[in-house]
Write a structure and sequence with these properties.
single chain; 612 residues; alpha/beta; 3 domains; 9-stranded parallel β-sheet; 6-stranded mixed β-sheet; 19 helices
Length: 612
């Protein structure tokens, strides 16, 4: 009997026997506390047995704590609230998924080590989900026992008081957010926004109507608000009114990260003073509206470089403000420990590692989450798994493996779990794949290992090098880093077998994630072929240039099909949003391929950069 669900349960006391989960069906008492129909549909399970799965409210249990008693006659799930009942049912679902329907008889007792277990989802630099898409994400993170979903909003909330806010970004109206929030409660999830109220106004700062509100660096418009202006604070108050009305009372994350512009414009001392005063003001405004403030703490504790303030400035912040320490590196030690002495409640934020690359860097995400939690165990109670979409070209579905890793360590401090163990469990639970498929996935996850980069930090960013080659103007030389041309030929051979195995074996469930993963395998393979076909040096002769024309035509035809597939997958779960921007990138690259074909047919110059 395999008990390695995600996250790992605290206690299973079994008599050694097992029963079939499919001999049971949800009783009315369970359906009153748990959305069983939606969960079973996601896992492609049918429960029509005569034995019952019952639910009992037991207020003696702690928040999110649950127990499951399995006997040959019935199953009873106990919890103090609906969320705990949901977790108990998800545990049964995962056990059945791992063991082809079998579950152990006995008693399971479980509770989380952290009370705030969140996923942040970047809807501002790429895809914005449809309402059904948001609901699907919320269901799936709940299966890994997250209890908070945090959409990251820069310009993707439709404010009634300011119709121009995000007018080119297809923002989500308040009515849809309210619907999403209500739906999420049925899965034990609270939807709490991250809305950046200082920096990262990258897109709105480029709109004429917002110029007067932006901080100026000489005659240059920055991406940060000028908080010295009264009209800016009045504007922010109106934003808060609508945000709180849509999402309800609770914690509001106000961003506050990477605002290097303030330090540059005002100087370190004045910028520090303004920054602290502004967030104290925000905290007070949120309290008036029945909310509390959360913010990133990197301006006090920079995970890289020196773009912020001295750490001591944190002591000037309202002690009711929650601080989130983010650090996405796979380190052994993290500096977030300093926050425990600041009298602030603080949390940690590792990452899903699914941005600016083909295929998420699952292993680095695993190490990042595992080590971050291990170091802070017992000193913080909040976990936010960050899933960014820098570049806007990575399908959101691919963040799911990193979400599984984060869910594991946010629920349980157990740091003995290996990456191999988590892979096996995830692929069986999520897709229904047995162990023989595990190696195929791992081969594809670890595609960048062929470049033999020893330093794990450099290795973590290796995928970005290949990702940039996909979009590069085809007439420009290939990067000389890592001997790409030589290594790509070897990598194509290694990946081909794994790709074919996965193509031949479709998953039992969550096909959208599988399709997104296989799409990025396709983009990766195309990039490797492009690097193999197009020399990074000048052609030695016109005959050599003409010799690759047929290969270039094949590449361009495949590229057009990739663009169409990207659009299909995008529109399946997302609004139009940023698709036009991404499509334009495809067209630019595609046109450079056609230009290269003409150059190889008719060019006379034969330079390194292959322009007519």
């Amino acid at each position: 009997m395999n008990l390695s669900i995600i996250p790992t349960v605290k206690s299973v006391v079994s008599d050694g026997n097992e029963v079939s989960f499919f001999d049971y069906s949800p009783a009315m008492s369970l359906q009153a506390h748990c959305r069983t129909e939606d969960i079973l549909a996601d896992f492609a399970f049918e429960l029509k047995g005569k034995k019952l799965i019952k639910a009992e409210i037991d207020e003696s249990l702690g928040k999110d704590e649950y127990s499951v008693s399995v006997s040959e006659n019935e199953i009873v799930i106990k919890g103090a609230a609906d969320a705990a009942i949901h977790y108990g049912f998800c545990t049964l679902i995962q056990l059945a998924a791992l063991n082809d329907g079998a579950i152990p008889t006995g008693v399971i007792n479980d509770k989380p080590d952290m009370s705030f277990r969140a996923v942040s989802d970047d809807i501002s630099r790429g895809q914005i989900s449809t309402v059904d898409g948001f609901k699907s994400i919320i269901r799936r993170i709940s299966y890994f026992k997250y209890n908070v979903y945090m959409p990251y909003i820069e310009d993707t909330f439709r404010f009634a008081f300011c119709p121009d806010f995000g007018k080119y970004s297809d923002p989500v109206p308040a009515s849809e957010w309210t619907e999403i929030c209500e739906y999420a409660l049925g899965f034990g999830v609270s939807v709490r926004p991250i809305i950046n109220l200082l920096g990262h106004w990258d897109k709105n700062s480029k709109l004429f109507d917002f110029r007067e509100m932006m901080l100026m660096d000489g005659d240059k418009v920055t991406n940060a608000l000028d908080v010295t202006k009264k009209e800016v604070r009045k504007f922010v108050c109106k934003m808060l009114d609508e945000i709180v009305a849509a999402f309800g009372p609770g914690v509001i994350h106000a961003g506050g990260d990477e605002v290097s512009e303030m330090k540059k414009v005002f100087g370190k001392e004045k910028a520090t003073e303004l920054y602290v005063e502004y967030f104290n003001w925000l905290s007070a405004e949120l309290k008036k509206r029945g909310c509390t403030l959360m913010m990133y703490g990197d301006m006090f504790l920079q995970p890289y470089g020196d773009y912020g303030f001295d750490f001591d400035a944190v002591y000037g912040l309202d002690s009711d403000i929650d601080l989130i320490a983010w650090d996405y590196a796979p380190r052994e030690e993290y500096s977030s420990e300093k926050f425990k002495d600041s009298k602030h409640r603080f949390g940690i934020s590792p990452a899903s590692w699914a941005w600016n690359r083909f295929i998420p860097q699952f292993e680095v995400s695993f190490i990042n989450s595992k080590n971050f939690v291990r170091q802070t165990r017992g000193t913080c109670d909040m976990f936010v798994l960050s899933s960014w979409n820098d570049g806007g070209a990575c399908l959101r579905e691919e963040m799911m493996p990193g979400i599984a890793a984060g869910g594991q360590f946010a629920w349980t401090y157990d740091d003995t779990l290996t990456f191999d163990d988590l892979c096996r469990s995830f692929h069986k639970i999520y897709y229904g794949y047995d162990d023989e498929m595990n190696e195929a996935f791992k081969t594809l996850y670890a595609y960048d290992k062929v470049f033999e980069v020893k330093d794990i930090h450099e290795y973590a960013g290796m995928g970005g090098v290949l990702f940039s080659e996909f979009w590069k103007d085809a007439r420009k030389p290939t990067s000389e880093k890592y001997d790409l041309a030589e290594k790509c030929s070897e990598l194509l051979s290694d990946l081909g077998e794994a790709e074919e195995l996965l193509k031949e074996n479709k998953p039992k469930r969550f096909k959208n994630t599988y399709d997104a993963f296989m799409f990025d395998v396709r983009r990766l393979m195309w990039t490797l072929m492009r690097i193999c076909v197009i020399p990074s040096v000048a052609f030695e002769s016109r005959e050599e240039a003409k010799s690759i024309v047929d290969d270039l035509i094949a590449l361009s035809e495949e590229f057009e099909l990739i663009k169409k597939e990207n659009r299909r997958l995008w529109m399946r779960t997302n609004r139009q949003s940023e698709w036009n921007y991404l499509e334009s990138k495809y067209i630019d690259t595609e046109q450079s391929l056609y230009s290269l074909i003409r150059y190889c047919k008719f060019g006379k110059n034969l330079g390194v950069e292959k322009y007519m």
